[in-house]
Design a protein that fits this description.
Blueprint (H helix, E strand, L loop, with lengths): L6 H8 L2 H11 L4 H8 L6 H17 L11
Helix pairs in contact: 1-4, 2-4
């Protein structure tokens, strides 16, 4: 049996890859210089990228259906 995805994970999967990756790297505690290397961006581009990624995630969460409660036998 697989565990259902959280609404946040569902929303992250719908984001464009650079935004999803940036948020996942930040959540994992990756250092900013390493994030920039992975994302192939200048260090000055990271804060606006994360700001946009957060906004896109917030919007995606608004449209992510809430999980249905599982029926108990």
């Amino acid at each position: 049996m697989t565990t259902p995805l959280t609404p946040r994970e569902q929303a992250l999967r719908r984001l464009p890859q650079p935004y999803s990756l940036a948020l996942r790297l930040r959540d994992a505690g990756v250092a900013e210089d390493q994030m920039c290397t992975y994302l192939d961006i200048d260090v000055h581009a990271l804060p606006p990228l994360l700001e946009i990624a957060d906004a896109k995630l917030t919007a995606a969460l608004r449209t992510t259906p809430k999980p249905e409660p599982e029926e108990q036998p």
